[in-house]
Amino acid sequence: MQKDIHFYLTYALSRKVGISVKDAEKIAWANQYTDDLTEADLHGIQTQSAILGNWADRQIQLSVLVPFHFIPGEDPKHPWMTTRNNFRAKHLVETALSDIFHLGIALHGLQDTFSHEKFSGWQEDLNACYPWYYIESHIIPNVGHAEMRATPDIVNCVWTDPRDGSRIDNKERARKAARATYDFLVKYYKPKIPVTTWKGLDKELQRIFRLESYDKRKRELRKLSGNPKVRYTNVKKRLTKAHKSDFVRAASKHLADVVESFGDLPRMS
Predict the structure, then answer these.
(1) I want to staple 137 with a disulfide (CB 3.0 to 4.6 A). Which of 17, 147, 177, 250 is the partner?
(2) Number of domains making up the chain
């Protein structure tokens, strides 16, 4: 998913459940910064790779793509494939609840289980979306949704999965990701919030997710948060300077937790 979900939606939902502005910023920043730390820091931690060609590197797959963006799910035929809202992603959020930066990172992975459903972070045949003779896509590694470019991450996009012909409506995926995010925030921060609160939010989010313009979606999510002036660029500049070391520490913990959870999965050659 993109910044409209990882930062602006996360920030808006955090505020709606009564999380302070300061903490809501930290959760949403850590969530989006997971896509922004594209080069290893001094500790060797990176949480995304911006160069598509690097996705063919098995170390990038193991330490970046799978743990932070393609958390393995519950399909017995394809055990490394991401499935939405899977037990492993939910457990990782539960594990992260005591650390606000770790929570943002874990929520990123949970949200991506919806947009990255049926893809895996390894280079394997199940990710192949086009026939071998489609030259442009053939030279792109069959890792994640690389062959589909950004299509699975664009909220208002409706597309057809070339692998099985299924019609995918990203608005519905985003809506379900929003609910999963909201449920965790409510559980930890405001368990007694009225159940009717989600109904109102859901109706508003459906309207926002239908907007064709990425910038308009961000604008409407800012309004929904109650802080129409919030901008990721400003928050990123401020919090990266103050808390990058906290993010790296949390990302290291998340990586360790994810790798530990791989014990039931078959070894990738």
Answers:
(1) 147
(2) 1
